Amino acid sequence: MTTFADLGLSPELLKAVEEAGYTEPTPIQAEAIPAVLMMKDVLGIAQTGTGKTASFVLPMIDVLANGRRRALMPRSLILEPTRELAAQVAENFEKYGANHDLKMALLIGGVQMGEQVKALNDGVDVLIATPGRLMDLFERGKIMLNACELVVIDEADRMLDMGFIPDIEFICDKLPDQRQTLLFSATMPAPIEKLAKKFLDNPKRMEVSRAASTNENITAFKIPVKNREKRSTLEWLLRNDLVDTAIVFSNRKTTVRELNKTLQRNGFASGEIHGDIDQASRNAELQRFKDGEINILVASDVAARGLDIKGVSHVFNYDTPWHPDDYVHRIGRTGRAGAKGRAFTFVGEGDDEAIDNVEKLTGAKIPVFGKKDVRVELPKAEPKKDKPQKDKREQDAPEQSDDAEEQREEKPRRSRARKSETAKAKPERKARDTSSDEQRDNEPSESKPRDDKPQRKSGGQSRHRNQDEEPVPAGEWNGPKPEFLSFGFK
């Protein structure tokens, strides 16, 4: 078994590594550290989460241990695509360089230049910078690059995605010809190959895993889902997939903000990080996530590269990444340092091409999440029982009291009593109706109305038969009797 002592590191550095809790180097560290100590150029292809940062930080500390720093002229330069990555590398230098007298400066955007310029004036051994801020200070004449002995271009494929390659070429042209250059990337597209050929001198190429492959410790799934159902699906997984800590990635900053608000409203301890948040707030949110104050971090791709946060159990791609390389880096936030992790990618309408590109890049089909992959026991569907159909009014009616039932029993009696009273009164009404008809027949014809329309009877009878009347025998007319029926049928 290879140990850090076998790699040729100094005793002071070995002590710092031991204090940090590391005993065995990762494959990329075992290959890269001896090559850097031998002052060779290095082209390293390693997936995220493999200890790539320590593979250049550790040997750099020993290489720079002897030397003199000068104002405005850093002795080494490390280029990182994002502020978070640059800050993480700075933390590594502070941790591993505790037993060495090395001075470091961090040049990133989102903070005031005053302290950064002051540090450069005092002289630095290690300069960690993002291309934008470095170019800004260089154009202002606040920094000179002609004394850099060692240059590291980290996350080169991410630099390509963010459009930093022209800046990288400009910076490399300002560096001295006699220098040691280290280039690390998780993937190796053609432009990065071209960049390596241009600026690296006979590099030692090391590839600890196939380019763009995913970590074996990560169990990945894809979930076909309608866009309007993404939030409910995410919340179900957060509640039911045994999530300890999770990072949720989205392609848009507006989606990050809206999703974080929704999760907080629904009782989740979540935070957000994206490009519109100032650096101090981003650092504070990341610290809350590391300290466990929140266990869900909703992020744009600004956090997809190199963030070394221990214990991230899940990664959710709320949106399928536009760039397939981003998929590798997103899910690489989990399954780090030998731990197991799970990654879910939501495939919405119109994401078929994007997920196909991801599968082509990784060379493997992502399995669809199904019932067999659920970590909790799903409730079993109860067998349907054939129940007798009830009248809708009976189903809707609330339970009645005993008094109400007695009232219902009394109602038919009352209606029967009314019917008997009505039956007694009918002969009198019939007699009155007969006499009135005879009187109308004896009147002269001039008094009769001209129109042949039937007149309503004065007894206030309805056009329709009263419900209390006796039933009409079957086959006889039971409606109002038209007047024309009385002619010729006497």
From TrEMBL:
EC number: 3.6.4.13
GO cellular component: cytosol
Matches recorded under Pfam families: DEAD (PF00270), Helicase_C (PF00271)
Catalyzed reaction equations: ATP + H2O = ADP + phosphate + H(+)
Gene Ontology BP terms: response to temperature stimulus; ribosome assembly
Motif (Q motif): 2-30
Keyword Methyltransferase: no
GO terms of molecular function: ATP binding; hydrolase activity; nucleic acid binding; RNA helicase activity
Annotated keywords: ATP-binding, Cytoplasm, Helicase, Hydrolase, Nucleotide-binding
Compositionally biased region (Basic and acidic residues): 377-396, 408-455
Region listing for Disordered, in residue ranges: 377-490
Domain Helicase ATP-binding, residue spans: 33-206
Domain Helicase C-terminal: residue ranges: 237-382
Acidic residues bias spans: 397-407
Domain DEAD-box RNA helicase Q residues, every copy: 2-30
Keyword Hydrolase: yes
Domain of life (superkingdom): Bacteria
Family the UniProt entry places it in: Belongs to the DEAD box helicase family.
Protein known as: DEAD-box ATP-dependent RNA helicase RhpA
Native source organism of the sequence: Aurantiacibacter rhizosphaerae
Taxonomic lineage: Bacteria, Pseudomonadati, Pseudomonadota, Alphaproteobacteria, Sphingomonadales
